[in-house]
# Entry
Amino acid sequence: MNFVCRSCGSKNIREILDLGDQPWGNDFIKIEKNETNQKYPLKFVICESCKMSQINYTIPKERMFKNHSYMSGTTKTLGLHFSNISDQILEKFPLKENAYVLDIGGNDGTFLENFKKKNIKVLNVDSGVQQSILSNKKGIECINDYFNEELASKILKERGQASIIHGSGIFFHLEELSSAFKGIKKLLKKDGVLVAEFIDLKSMMQNVAFDQIYHEHLLYYSLNTLNHMLITYDLEIFDAQLYNIHGGSCVAYIKHKESKFEQTSNCKYLMQEEINYGILKYEPYENFAKKVQSFKIEILNLLKKLKSQGKTICALGAPVKGSTMINYLKLERDLLDCAVEINPYKFDTFYPGTKIPVVDQSKILDPNYYFILSWNFQEEIISKMSKFIDGGGKFITPFPKIKVI
# Structure
């Protein structure tokens, strides 16, 4: 293996979990095109030198992040979360006049809307073509490009330094990792704050949520491993909070090393909790891999049993994580009739790597069971489906434990 650690460059890499060859999970091809998805290795590994978790194969960023169908504004839950985070940012770090907030990978501008409403200057950077168009339509200027040191220098020249730089689910996407953090170092004001939101590695493993491993997620951060990497760029985490969104996410507040902010007691507590869990050892990772294999047996047994009873089962939602789930389980139409969506960009496509059609949820008869693939938004989803529930419909939820609701 020629792969080197994305964080420290070490060649000492240990394989934890092989999820097989899989398509890029957002490669939703229109049914009428009758094309086949290309597949790539999907292996979850850990660096033995710096303990950074990652995958060891990179699909070029131009393939994954230019033309894709994910829109931040689709779910109410995420919108409310962003509103909460933006309020907290303004409460903790009041902005001076003419300050601006930069969102890296800001998608359709959903996060920045909260600042624009308060007449705070904003700037979005996103590589997605459709996402950039939507952001600009909202009056939130979006640079349609990949964030790196070169782009940071250009923004610096035109706008000066940002008081707040935010990134939700972007810092584990970065192919140009070093260049991006060098850019942030340049672009962040002396007393500025970088707010990084990411799936919490400890929560992911505790929930056995292996479907959060996919090709867009190049790295999987804990506070300890992220901080170890940030120190290389003279940045460091000084505060952090855990949230339930996405099955367990962390919001880390990051400063220049020489900045006045002191590390909070909660940040120290969360970092120690990770160490107590064994985040810098191998046992939790090996246990996680074993639990994933057990999950596969249990869920397939359940689906096969229901189908043998003549039940209809549809996947509810077609998120990119669902592609990992479906392809690892090798599901096809013998077990899943179809997948339903509310995102029109995904209508009339095949689930990547399968012949399972993705259809408009409003246009099909409800099945006996919905297998919730967008399980991170299951409360919001279930709350909208009282008619299905009243008619005797049931849900299958995968994490943190397989349940029929």
Summary: The first helix runs from residue 61 to 64. The chain has two domains: 72-281, 303-404. The chain is about 35% helix and 25% strand.
